[in-house]
Amino acid sequence: MVLQPKIIQGGSHIDERGTLQFLNDFDMKQVKRLYQTTNATTSMVRAWMAHKIESRWFFCAEGKFTVKLVRVLDFEKGLASNEIITYKLDSDNPQILYIPPGYASGFKTEVSNSKLLIFADYAFGEIEDNFKFTTTDFLPWQS
Description:
Blueprint: E1 6-9, E2 11-15, E3 18-22, E4 33-37, E5 45-51, E6 56-62, E7 64-74, E8 79-90, E9 95-99, E10 103-109, E11 115-120, E12 131-132
Antiparallel strand pairs: 1-9, 2-3, 4-11, 5-10, 5-12, 6-9, 6-11, 7-8, 7-10
Organism: Marixanthomonas ophiurae
Domain Sugar 3,4-ketoisomerase QdtA cupin: 9-127
InterPro entries: QdtA_cupin_dom, RmlC-like_jellyroll, RmlC_Cupin_sf
């Protein structure tokens, strides 16, 4: 069975004290690592990073991101599916994008100073599971 990417929707509560955002349906039992990334410019595209074994979860902590996913058909040959799935993550709408093993991901910031938190289910260096593909050899990034 092939796992599919999915959005885990959060919510928010606003009152006179401010705003509380929450992601109550995000089960973090599998998470072993967390890191944050920012892009130097809004024109920079970070693509494509894939994993055969690892799962990832993306959370937009600040700003806005476009995230694209594509299923990898052959990791050694760098072959991808023709179907690109596009997600828009916005810090004003708390949600987590789950990226299962077998997918390549790429992302682009839509506004300056955007911050993306990335959760992984393996510790750094625990397994060798990083596959980097270029936007020229693997799949072009189309806006």
